[in-house]
Each structure stands twice: as structure tokens, then as C-alpha cells.
Amino acid sequence: MADKETKKLWGGRFAESMDALCERMNASIDVDRALYREDIEGSKAHARMLAAIGVLTDEELAAILKGLDEIRAEIERGELAFRAELEDIHMHIEARLTEKIGEAGKKLHTARSRNDQVATDFRLHLRRRMQGIVEEIRGLQRALVAQAERWAEAVMPGFTHLQVAQPVTFGFHLLAYVEMLDRDAGRMEDAIRRMNECPLGAAALAGTTFAIDREMTARELGFARPCRNAMDAVSARDFVLEFLAAGAIHAVHLSRLAEELVLWTSPFFGFVELPDRFCTGSSIMPQKKNPDIPELARGKTGGVIGALVAMLALMKALPLAYNKDMQEDKAHALRVLDELEMLVPAFASIIAGMKPNPARMRKAAEEGFATATDLAEMLVRKGVPFREAHEVVGKAVAWCVAHDKRLEELPAEVAQSLHPKLSPAMIAQLSVERAVAARRHLGGTAPEEVRRQCAFWKQKLGMED
Ligand code: ARG
């Protein structure tokens, strides 16, 4: 028989106390203590329901509610000692409640199991923090839109294969991220909507012999409805997978933005300067100013992707219903929550603070033959088939490369020798500003279209004008 100190809440059928190392391995309190708020909320809703169906008296309910509120305050003041022998947050709170209020505390777990309890806590916790992340994503979108509007006219090279492709505006480039982030927020919101069903009342897996009111607990906890099938309610972790998948996709988007910031701030690009407060120096090279924060964002994305893969692997061979393997789920999700809660607002500050260098951007756009497509399209307007125009302009570029000239400097006689319709007037029309201004259809890079899209986003994101 376990001694009084280490007696388990489930100890009735056990003859010896748990092996110390296995007890440590079994404990999840270091991780799931993060769920204390939701565990208390869930217990209060459960207790109210038990009182409503006559399982608890009004006095017992009052004692439980008061006790739980006090425990919450104790945890927040750092007064509750967490101990491996009490395994997890559920048993810590229950044990403390019984210590405080006696018999009534022992009744709280009627018609409930830790299986439905943890599933409920976890959904509530994810729901709350994912809503916060959605808000942070909106903040980052606002920062991007504000910069996009400011730099609607700034011409830079657009790249494919990281080779200069066509001129674009910096505002246009930033708005691409606004679109990606909007889908990221949408994925989070979709996942929240699907996870917003209440497992409470599923008990261990089959439901309970008590005439519980699952609608009531679902309503109390702000869920849209109870989970329909008790076995599914305690077995399912696709709500965690969806969060991790949405989180991984979002992290990948942040990582691409991070990568661009690393490139843009390199002196070889020099498109953007980051304020010192977002950078660090070198311990040996006095001249260095490194974009560590974007680099860390890029690096942390590996861990976020890893969490998704770990969680998929965790679930893939589990029979229904609950299996202890599932206790490992929280570490993955909590880590990703912590990372995103740091990364997204950090990016919002960095984007708001970045200082573009439009002169450098423009120069790079001019140096890369970015207007070659436009020249080919001018020939097409004169009746030259596109494939032939492509070939002619390709030769013009080759001549310029060989003679270290820009396309705008192509001599009239060379142009004429390449194609009779390739006129000096056409060459004279080439400019990166004209190239972007011409692309003014929906979704194009023209400053006027960028401004129109900014107006759309400002309205959608509730930005003041
Ligand atoms: N700490 C457990 C977890 O996080 C709670 C559920 C335990 N259930 C059980 N049947 N042992 O998964």
C-alpha cells in the first residue's frame, strides 16, 4: 500500500507505490500546467451541471466554485507546489480542492474522466490562444499594408529563380504577403470553428450512467455544441493536427519573409535597412550588423514543421479511444503556440520599422534587363509573333551583356540589324516606371493598383485613414 504522502487518486487497486523513474516519466505536470485556467473553467462548468442535475447540493457547488477560484489565484501567485506524484494538472487541482474543502472536492470527478477533461481543456486552450494568434496575424498584415501604401511607387526588381525578372513595386511585393497571411488567419479560424465542440461528458470513452446535461456544459464553456460521439470526443486529436498544420504553413510564410529580409538587408542587395534594435553584432568583427531575428524566425520554422510531423506520427497507429501516447501532444502544440506568439508580433515590429532604400531597388531593377519582356511585347504590338519577338530581344540582351550596356542604351543600328521593326522609338520608351505603370489591371504591380488594393485591405483590416 502506498504511504499517505504518495497515495494516488487512482491508488485503490495498487499494492505498491510507483517506481520513481517511471513516475517521473508518467508525469506531465511540467507541460500541462499551462492548461490550469481551462482546467478550472471546465471543472466549474462540470460542477454547475452536476448541481443542476441533482448530483451536487447547492452548498457543495458553492464550496467547489469558491475552492476552484482560490486555487486559480494560488497558481497565479505561484503558491501551488507542482509534484510529479500528482501526475498532471487535473489531479493537482482536484487534490488541492479536496485538501481545501474536503468531501465535496471528492465528488467533482463524478461523471467525468481525465480523458474528456484533458480533451476539453486542450480545445479551450488552443481556441483561446489561436484567436490571439489570428489577432497578431492581423496586426502583421496592417504593418505590411502601411508599408505597401508608403512604397506603392518604389520600383524594385521582381525575381524568379532569384534572377531579375520584371520590375515590380515594393508595395506590390509586400501585398503578396498580406494575401498569404490572410489565408493563414483563415486556416486558423477554420480550425477553431471545427474544434469548437465540447468533449465533456464523454467521460472515459462511453459516456456515463448519470443523466448529464452536455448541452449545458458546452454552452457554459462557449462551445458551439457538444461532440456528438463520446468515443470520438476522447480519441480525436485532429484539432491539434489542424492547428499544427495551419501553424506550420504560417511559419513557412514567415520564414520566406525572413529569408527575403536577410537577402534585402545584405549589402549586395541593400534594399532594406533594419533598425539596430532588431539586429545584433559580432563578437569579433566590429563592422557586423546581423539580421539575427529574421534568421531565428527562419530557423524556428524547422521546429514548427517538426511539431506537425511529430504529432502526425504520434497519432497514426493509435487504436481508439484514449492512449497515453496522446499525453505527448501538448508539448508539441504548446511549443508552437509559444513560438508563434513571439514570432508574429516580432515580425509586425520589424516590418513597421524597416527602412527601404528605393534608390538601391531602382538601380537593381535597371541593371537586370527587367524591361526585356516589355520590349518583346512592343514588337508583338507591331505584328511580330511573340516567339520571334522573344528571340530578337534575347539577341539584343546578349549584345548588351557583351558590350556592358543596358537595354535602354541599345544603339539604333544594332536594333535595326536585329529586326526592322525594332525601332529607336521603342527603345526610348523603355523604363522601369513605365513597365510597372502599364501593369495596372486587377492584381498587377502598378502603383495605382497597389493603392487600390491597399484601400481594400485598410477597410478590411479596420485601419484608420
Ligand atoms: N495527463 C493526461 C494527458 O495529458 C490526462 C489524461 C489521462 N488519462 C488517463 N486515462 N490516464 O493525456
Descriptive notes:
With 465 residues, the protein is mostly helical. The chain folds into three domains: 4-110, Fumarase/aspartase (N-terminal domain) (Fumarase C, Chain B, domain 1, Orthogonal Bundle), CATH 1.10.275.10; 115-363, Fumarase C, Chain A, domain 2, CATH 1.20.200.10; 365-460, Fumarase/aspartase (C-terminal domain) (Ribonucleotide Reductase Protein R1, domain 1, Orthogonal Bundle). 62% of the residues lie in helices and 5% in strands. The protein has 20 helices and six strands. The strands form three sheets. A two-stranded antiparallel ribbon has the order 1-2. A two-stranded parallel ribbon has the order 3-4. A two-stranded antiparallel sheet has the order 5-6. The longest helix is centred in the N-terminal third of the chain and has 37 residues, at 114-150. The chain starts with 19 loop residues before the first helix and ends in a 5-residue tail after the last helix. Mean pLDDT is 96; it is low at 1-5. Arginine binds at residues 28, 32, 88, 114-115, 118, 322, 324, 326-327.
Can you give keywords for this protein?
two-stranded parallel sheet, binds arginine, Ribonucleotide Reductase Protein R1, domain 1, Fumarase C, Chain A, domain 2, 5% strand, 3 domains, 465 residues, 20 helices, two-stranded antiparallel sheet, disordered N terminus, Fumarase C, Chain B, domain 1, mainly alpha, elongated
